[in-house]
Amino acid sequence: MMLAYMDRAAAAAEPEDAGSPSTVAASAAADDEAARDFGGLVSARPAAVVLPASVDDVAAAIRAAALRPNLTVAARGNGHSVSGQAMAEGGLVLDMRALALPRRIHLVRTSQSPNGFAADVPGGALWEEVLHWGVKQHGLAPASWTDYLRLTVGGTLSNGGVSGQSFRYGPQVRWTRVVYASFADYTADAEWLVTRPADAAFDYVEGFAFVNSDDPVNGWPMVPFPGGAGFDPALLPAGAGPVLYCLEVVLYQHNQHQHQPDDDDDEDKVRNRGEKEKMKRKVSAMMAPLKYVRGLEFGVDVGYVEFLSRVNRVEEEARRNGSWAAPHPWLNLFVSARDIVAFDAAVIKGMLADGIDGPMLIYPMLRSKWDPNTSVALPDGEIFYLVALLRFCRDGGAAVEELVSQNRAVLAACRANGYDFKTYFPSYRSEPEWRAHFGATRWKRFVDRKARYDPLAILAPGQKIFPRATTKAGGTVI
Ligand SMILES: Cc1cc2nc3c(=O)[nH]c(=O)nc-3n(C[C@H](O)[C@H](O)[C@H](O)COP(=O)(O)OP(=O)(O)OC[C@H]3O[C@@H](n4cnc5c(N)ncnc54)[C@H](O)[C@@H]3O)c2cc1C
Fold first, then answer.
1. Cα(184) to centroid(ligand 1), Å
2. Could you tell me the pTM of the whole model?
3. Nearest CA, atom 3, ligand 1
4. Tens-of-pLDDT digits for all 478 residues of the chain?
5. Ligand 1 — pocket residues by CB below 6 A?
6. Of ligand 1's atoms, which has the minimum distance to the CA of residue 122?
């Protein structure tokens, strides 16, 4: 087993027959890193951080844990979960980034993809690494992305992975935002857009709520694209409330003409201008039936990779102002379309009308696009909304507590009002709560799968669903 470092306590605890790590070194910095995550609300110190060099190393770490009572193992991707899901208190944390060498990403043939290709990717690879590998080496990219690409493939797939797009490769993108004062109009248009036939659909549909103010984080200034027209509040209809909505769509342009090094630059420019104008007209025609506030529409042409990397700019700014490293009391929900208008009235307009110091995403998705074999829990009905309260607060202590309480109050309101909703990235502490989350049938399937694949509950202790068992079924004491 090849371990790059492991702390001394765990090394001392390692049973002789478990196979010794080839490298053992105390690393307080690595332990500190593995003891926290992006959420900044939970801390759990591991006994050791393991850098696996191969799949065999992962297997060996799990075998070693199985031989010791109470030792657990957590895979850690990029640590961007918010409730300690990638942590292992007193256990082993496998740093999956160690396995993510670019040379380990391979293009493979498959009958399950429309173009016959798939990528074979180490779980610890960042989506950003997959994007650059695919585009540069093969002119290909996955069909769907998360909004932010510095998440690992394994960490995202283990939790879900949502965004507002299906994929068509192209070097330019027309990216458009339009504003609504009426939530009913917003949802009607958003649902219409996500149910359009593929040949008449945008490649990406998302949206967010923002507040009727000049707040740079939550208000009007967050909607226009830099360098373009500004937000003119005079265009809002009389009686526009404290909360507004922005629908965001993107159309990818398929490149008819690949730029060649000996292309004449002027000809290229003229061709590009022509293609951009055509795209603009096409997007305008697709937007024409929508009921957004006329005049409050913003568009920009960006490259495909630039569009997919858009959240990197948010990261840079948040690192500058200190809110990246601060706690993130985020709350992510799936709310059924049946209840979304009532949810908006009670929660978004009712409880969060002053904004949340970060984006409030709210956009529809289709249940039929989700694989029923995964363990994600969704509300009933074909259309449901992602509601993501992505708070970036710089103040610690009491302010964080207040926001965590507000999250609890939102959940309590959803339950009290009988909304059909599920938490996304759930973080429950008791079995009845997990059972309610999955529903009776799916909970049974989940428990059966755990018993089959991880009978001692060694893995994923940070999810706090199954306590580490000391006996196998049949009574063998470990
Ligand atoms: C700024 C930001 C933007 C985000 N944007 C989106 C978005 O657009 N869409 C979306 O769906 N989510 C989004 N998320 C949430 C994100 O997808 C999840 O938090 C995800 O789990 C983070 O990935 P990670 O690599 O950091 O995983 P970690 O936090 O390291 O791990 C998460 C879970 O996955 C497990 N895990 C990690 N790697 C593996 C592996 N190789 N094999 C098995 N299990 C593994 C861990 O044990 C843990 O339980 C965002 C989060 C942040 C902080």
1. 32
2. 0.89
3. 148
4. 333 333 333 443 444 333 444 333 346 888 899 999 999 999 999 999 999 999 999 999 999 999 998 999 999 999 999 999 999 999 999 999 999 887 889 999 999 888 899 999 999 999 999 999 999 999 888 888 889 999 999 999 887 776 665 333 445 689 999 999 999 999 999 999 999 998 899 999 999 999 999 988 899 999 999 889 999 999 999 999 999 999 999 998 866 555 444 555 677 777 777 888 888 899 999 999 999 999 999 999 998 889 999 999 999 999 998 999 999 999 999 999 999 999 999 999 999 999 998 999 999 999 999 988 989 999 999 999 999 999 988 777 778 999 999 999 999 999 999 999 999 999 998 889 999 999 999 999 999 999 999 999 999 999 999 999 986 544 444 4
5. 37-38, 74-81, 85-86, 96, 123-124, 146-148, 151-152, 154-156, 158-163, 425, 460, 462-463
6. 41
**Which amino acid belongs to residue 12?**
A
Pairing of strands 331-336, 421-424: antiparallel
Select from 42, 82, 152 the residue to mutate for testing ligand 1; criterion: most ligand atoms less than 8 Å from CB: 152
The rounded distance, in Å, linking the Cα atoms of 246 and 275 is 26
Contact (CB, 8 A) for 174 and 279? yes
Of ligand 1's listed atoms, the one at least distance from the Cα of 153 is: 25
Sign of CA dihedral 60, 62, 66, 67: positive
- For ligand 1, the distance from its centroid to the CA atom of residue 332, given in whole angstroms, is 13
Query: What's the 112 CA to ligand 1 centre distance in angstroms?
Result: 25
Q: How far apart are CA 76 and CA 94, in angstroms?
A: 6
Measured in Å, residue 109 CA sits from the centre of ligand 1 at 27
DSSP-assigned letters across all residues of 287-318: HTT----TT-EEEEEEEHHHHHTHHHHHHHHH
